[in-house]
Amino acid sequence: GYDVRVAAVNVAGSGAYGENLHIKTQAAPPDFVYVTRIGPGDCDLRWAPQPGATPQYSVFPFRWIPASQAWLEEAAKSKSKGEIDFFFVAGLVKGANYTFQVATISDLGVGQRSAMSHEVTTTSSLPEPGPRPVLSDPSTQGLKVTWPRVDTNDGNGGSPTTAYVLYSFAHRYAGGGWKTATTLVPDANGVIATSYVAAGLLPDVNYQFKIAVVNKNGQGPAGPESDKMPTVPGKLDAPFQEAFLKTILLTWTPPENNSYVAYRIYFSRYANDPNGIAQNEEDLWSPWTAQILPASTTLQKYDSLKPDYPYRFKIAARNPSGWGADSENVVSRTTIVSDPWSMDVNSQVALQVSDPTITTTTAELVWTGPASSNSNLRGSAIGFRITACQAKSLICDTGEEYLVNCQADPPNIYTRSHECDRTKNKYMRQGLLKNTNYYFELSIVNSGGEGPRSKASPQIRTKASYPDQMSRPLASSLSSDSILVTWDRLVDWNSRGGLDITGYALFKQVSGFSYDAGEVVYEGTSFTYTGLPSNTKLNFALVAENTWCTICPLDIIVPEGGCFFEACCATHSCSAKSQNSISVSTKVGKMTLPRLESATIYDTIVTWDPVPGTPNNIKHFKIRFRDIDRADKDDSGGWVERTFAGTVEGTVQGIGIKNHALVNLDPNNRYEVILNADNGFGYGAESDPAILMTKANQMESIVVVAVRATEATLTWQAPPGRQNNILGYNVSYREATHTEIVLNRVSETLPLSYVTSVGTATRFDVINLKSNATYVFSVAPINGGGI
């Protein structure tokens, strides 16, 4: 910077100086501009600043353009703060060659530029998001996808593109999601295509595509999605047709989630030109005429057609991408009137039902119109249908369950007839209601379906019958002498025989015996048997009875003016009995008294008389017992309860039904025992209590305390236990053998003589002995359990 002032000079000399003016010279350009770091699209630039320079500089990038073989100067970048010898240069093209100049900026502007820096190349990176594709040329299963080429100047990360990855998304009801459609790589000439025809797509489905670019560094992110475009609709199913005498109704069902905007229906009639010569099938039909319908329509009606005449149809759908393929042709035919079969030449109804053919549910209809015998009047008839109408309710039944297909591969269900024989003139109509007035209507069937029904035949009445066999009743045990039986009311008209139900006959059978005469129940659907024997297995069967057994049947009145009823009415056997109910037993009555079968010192065997009722019918026994002698025992006064299996017919489930062992008892002890039984329907009343006793223990300390000529007095120690339980003692004796006398002990087993003492005394005189003889004595206690 410099200060300058000026003064004027004349011949007289120099005048006064003016004010100082401060001026600056331009700064010299920086020295030694160089790059210290290179990145993808940026670098760090440094230089040697001139003395006195400010941190304001302008950087001038130059990029090498291979196509023009020249350096292109890009927009200058200014630096106004920070280090005076450093600048971060951003916004460069990735993978490009650069060189730089730097100039100082002062008050006087941008100064002289420096010399060029050395040449550098920015690095490359993953590509930028791919370009947005465009869809075109839709077909039923394909779309064309195109996109702009990506080169080193616009989005491939500064590195040549090596591939394009194409993704597709199918917008459909189920499935979908982004999927890899294809990967495009360079061809033999090193060129990568920028279009792709996606094939194998679903018809009438909206698709989107997106693209990712690949370079040497890898695959970049996918770019923006294309607009949606649907594929062209596929081939529709042929429409369903319903034919009438002069009308054909077409219906169709489009697939879910379709994008249709219109339908195109084609119509053609049979040409029927006897003078024409048909070269192919198309010559037999009139030219197609088309009608466009909105997509909201799924029904089309064609009126004023010719009866018994063939027509054909096909359909196609359109969506925003175009028309789909036409469906297969469907050939239909208007139906036939039945008059040539059902009316005679005098226009009178020619339908008859003969009485001998009338049963409870069938009747044979005969038609005698001229078409029955004249084949020229039958047209395209395939078969016939007989509709039965109830005269009172006017409910008509076509008898669908009896229809058959009249072709091996019929195009629709309207070729179904009662019989596929147009030459027949009679048919036995089944499935009628009993005791019901009917009339019949005849309709003729051709490939188009059932034609209009004829006028009604004369009325007939089907026959009545006795009720059908009923389902089995349900029996429930209530007590030891009563059982409740229930059943379902017979409501079906035919099951009732076409008459009202007047009552139900209920039969009872004791297992192994015949049925009884039966009980008639006039009200309700249940009956309770009372006064039955206990523990008795019973079966029940049921018969429904209708007015056939209570009101004079039609045409069966005897001449005397009375009624004639079948003998089965009196025995309730006009209908078959139902299946037996599941066997049920009355509950067990009072259990029989337990008693002692045998006893030991520690055990007793309890027995009892068989439980009254059906043999082998007890599932479980329950026994309760308690010690009533030993007040000092822990269980004194407490009951011990045990359940054990009984014997059911056909299977032995336990120890039996005649006895049960009580073990681990105390000797010479009384026990109170109560029994109960269950036959599967509950326990009955308990037995009365019985007192049973274990035997007393073996005697000890027998002593002969006195001996006389023919007598001996014995004493002994009483056995353990309650002394009052002892009823007496059994004293046995015999003469000792010579060996026993020598050995002074009993060594042989020989017959004994017995004598019994009564009471609890432990002293007894044995009399009537031999004098001067040696005897052996033993004593055994006697109580309620035995000796």
- Give the quaternary arrangement of the chains: single chain
Taken as a percent bin, the fraction of beta residues is: 35-45%
Radius of gyration, in angstroms, nearest whole number: 60 Å
Shape: flat
Give the mean pLDDT. 89
Spans with pLDDT under 50 lasting ≥5 residues? 650-656
Distance between the termini: 153 Å
Could you describe the largest sheet, including whether it forms a barrel? 6 strands, antiparallel
Number of helices: 3
**Range of helix content:** under 10%
Number of DSSP strand runs: 61
Structural class: mainly beta
Element layout with pairings:
Layout lengths: L1 E3 L2 E4 L2 E5 L3 E3 L7 E9 L2 E7 L8 E9 L4 E4 L3 E3 L6 E4 L7 E10 L2 E5 L6 E2 L12 E3 L6 E4 L16 E9 L6 E7 L10 E4 L7 E10 L2 E2 L9 E2 L9 E4 L4 E4 L10 E8 L19 E6 L4 E4 L7 E10 L2 E2 L6 E4 L5 H4 L8 E3 L9 E5 L15 E8 L5 E2 L6 E2 L10 E2 L8 E4 L7 E10 L2 E2 L9 E2 L12 E4 L5 E4 L14 E10 L8 E3 L4 E4 L7 E10 L20 H5 L12 E2 L9 E5 L4 E4 L12 E8 L12 E6 L1 E2 L2 E2 L6 E4 L7 E9 L11 E4 L6 E8 L4 E6 L10 E8 L2 H6 L9 E6 L4 E4 L8 E8 L5
Antiparallel strand pairs: 1-4, 2-3, 5-6, 6-10, 7-8, 7-9, 7-11, 11-12, 11-13, 14-15, 15-18, 16-17, 16-19, 19-20, 19-21, 22-23, 23-26, 24-25, 24-27, 27-28, 27-29, 30-31, 31-36, 32-33, 32-37, 34-35, 37-38, 37-39, 40-41, 41-44, 42-43, 42-45, 45-46, 47-48, 48-53, 49-50, 49-54, 51-52, 54-55, 56-57, ...
